Structure formats: C-alpha cells, structure tokens
Amino acid sequence: MLTAGGMFLLSAVVILIAGTKLSHYADQIAEHSGLGRLWIGVVLLAGATSLPEVFTAVSAVLLDEPNIAVGNLVGAGLSNMLTLALIDMVYRQKRIWQQAALEHALIAALAIILTGLAGLLIVIRQPLPLWHVGLGTLAIAVIYVFGVRVVFRQEDMRRRAQELERLVAAEAASVNSLVPTGALKRALMGFSLAALCILVAAPVLAEAAKELAEATGISTTFIGTSLVAVTTTLPELVTTFAAVRLGAYDLAVGNLFGSNAFNMAVLLPADLAYQKGPLLAAVEPTHAVTAFVSILLMSVGVMGIIYRAERRFMLIEPDSLLMIVSYGLSMWLLFRIGA
Q1: DSSP class of residue 51?
Q2: What is the CATH number for 210?
Q3: Do the Cβ atoms of 103 and 260 come closer than 8 Å?
Q4: Which tens digit of pLDDT belongs to each residue from 16-48?
Q5: Host domain of residue 12
Q6: For residues 149 and 23, what is the distance between their CA atoms, to the nearest angstrom?
Q7: Do the beta carbons of residue 327 and residue 297 sit within 8 Å?
Q8: Is residue 328 packed enough to be buried (19+ CB in 10 Å), middle (13-18) or exposed (0-12)?
Q9: Cα separation, 286 vs 27, whole angstroms
Q10: SS3 285
Q11: Most C-beta atoms within 10 A of its C-beta, which of 1, 156, 164, 332?
C-alpha cells in the first residue's frame, strides 16, 4: 500500500509523462487543422494541460477541502508565470518573449481581469449567493467565454491575413490542398489519450495532498498554493518547454496565459461541487494575496512580450528575474501567514 507521499509522486509522474505528449499532439493539430498555434495554445492546449487543476479542484471540494481547491487554481497562476520566466532564462538566445505574437496581450489581459475579480470576491466574501453558488464565479465563467471569443476573432483576422499572403505565392494552393486528414485524426486521438491519463491521476493527487497536509501540520492553503499548484501545473511546464524546442513559441506562451484564464473559469464547476455555500466565501483571505501577486507577475510578462527592444542583458532579463524573485517571496509570505 502506497503512502501519501508515494501516491503524490506516482500521480505526479503520470501527469508529467502525459503532459509531454500533449504539446507534441497540439502542435500537430495546429499544423494540420490550420487553426493556428496561438488559438490552439490558448484554448485546446491550455484546457487540456489544466485538466489536473480542474479535477484536483473538484476532488478537493468533494473532500471538503476548499482551501486546497482554490489554492490550487489561484496558485497555478504563480507557477505558470514562473515557467514563463524560466523559459526566457533557459532559452534567452531564442528571444521567446519577443517572438511571441502581440495578440497574447489579449489573453493575458483576460487572465488578469479574471484573477483580479476572483481576488476581490475572496476579500468581500461574495455577498450575492445564488442557491449555494456564488454569482461571482458565474460571472467569471461568462467573462471567460466572451473573452476567448474576442481572442478567437483576433486570431482569425491574423490567420486570414497570413493565408492571403501565402496565396500570393505560386505554390500556396497546392500546399494547402495536401492536408493529411489521417495525421490530424492520429493527433486528436493521441491528444485525447494523454488528456485521459491526466484525468485519472488528478483525483489521486488531491487525496494525497489532503493526507500530506494532515500529516505535516502545514495549512491546506499553503499546500494547495505551493505543492499542489506546482504539481498540477507540471503539464504546462513540460508542454511549454517542449513547444519551445519545437519552435512553437505562440503555443508555449498561449498555453501559460490561457491556462491562467481557464483556471479562473474552473472556479464555477468547483463552486457547483461545493454544497455548503459560495466557494470563495468559505476559503481563507490569504488566497487574495496569491491572486494579486499572480496579477503582478502576469503584468510583468505582458510588458516583456510587448517590449521589443533589440538589446538584451548577458545573463538574465530583469523582468524574468523580477518574476522569479517575486514568486519566491510570495511563497515565503504565504508560508509565514499559514504557519
């Protein structure tokens, strides 16, 4: 019989292996479907790599651990921005932030708005419940849907412009007519199988996290924001680095910002699963600190993408360094508050 630590590590390994496959298949889907890497990264890949957050959050709520659920979702924003800083540091010669499309500012702005709204709802304790669900989490989900539609329309305009440019070339028509539908089907099947593996491992991760919190005496808020959030964002970490190695920079950056926005929308299903009242009214106010630090890191990331200067520092960009230091300080602060 595995211990809580063994269960946690085993489920983390499953999530890690499945996450490595997601990026490969997502890149193939983007190539063969013609939808574009930005759109695939923001919606399909972000949604799939956020499956651990979805099922871990719902599982934690069903185990009556709302702090693990919300800490997981909000803390994932910090972990994803740490990943964004790490790829800039590790692959600084590739100028990843500068090569990413400026349209990423749209999905980043959406993630910032949703995270800010979630933080505000945690502070004010959600005074407007609808049955046992908070109107705030419903509003977050609705705003997410409309925001993604705006991103899709923007990406569709960019894709149409690029297709028009390709049609000017003599061989464009023949290349576009040779889309291998068999390859697209195989990519979709592989993508679905990897996502299924993540779905199976997530509830095990939530149960193990609860047992670890009870065994160590560390607050469930800190466990959810740090250990669980880092583990459930392993797919984002793995798929982002894999996408960078493939040269799919829009896929990598879109996955991170898209996951942050998607995770806030996941508050609604978690709230629906929580039967004791509005979810965000039942958690510790400490989660608001996590949300606001996440907003800070996302804002720095947006500035790094928009800023297109040619000169770079030798070792590490100051924006990446600021994000890494801010992440470390926020973890220390959250541990002190929860201790």
Answers
A1: H
A2: 1.20.1420.30
A3: no
A4: 777 667 666 766 666 666 555 565 656 666 777
A5: 4-338
A6: 23
A7: yes
A8: exposed
A9: 38
A10: coil
A11: 156
